[in-house]
Every structure is written in C-alpha cells, then in structure tokens.
Write the structure tokens for this entry.
Amino acid sequence: MFDDDPQSVQLDAVTATSPASQKFGLYLKAREVRQLAEVLQALSSRSKQERLDWLRENEPVVAELVNAFTDESIATLDGATMDRESMQLSVELMSDLRRALLMLDGLFYDQRLKG
C-alpha cells in the first residue's frame, strides 16, 4: 500500500539505529527538554523566596535531570544519520537544551549568589 511512497517508513525495518528511530529519539528528547523549560518558565513567575525554597527541596532532582538530559541528548545525537530533518531536530534539541540551562542559571544560580 505504501511501498510507492518514498516518505513512508516500513515498520519492520525500524531498528534502534535506523534513521526513523533516531529521528524519533531526537523528537522525544527535544519534547522532554521543552517540557522542562515550561516548568522553569512557570517557576520564574514565583517570588525569589519561593524559587529558592523550591530549589532547596528539588536540587538533587534538578541536577540529576540536567545531567540526564545533557547525557541522553548527546547520546541521541551520537552516531545519528544526519539528513536534513535530523539536522533540524538536532539543532532544535540543542537550542532547547541551552534555553533550559540558561533558565536554570537565571532562576537559581544567580539568585543564590545574590541571596
């Protein structure tokens, strides 16, 4: 049915290292990082004290999440076949990760130095 469509993906041909699987992995990582950024954005509307209290309660979790996102994002990119779509997803992932890390830095690190 879809054999004629060059854009279709043969599900029996999708493996962990196939381009379709790699693209899906990139998409998932970018989505997870965007969700983290949304949480951080919501925290930015809270008072300085509320943010610091939240950080004290969640600092180990936040550190683990950042390390996991960074490591997993790099692992997802490592060895990926880079066609145009994969390259775009990779750029989006790294941009979203950078944005989330900058938000973390702005919300917490700067505040702790001033606090």
Q: What stands out?
A: Residues 17-114 form one domain. The chain has a mean pLDDT of 75. The CA atoms of residues 16 and 22 lie 7 Å apart.
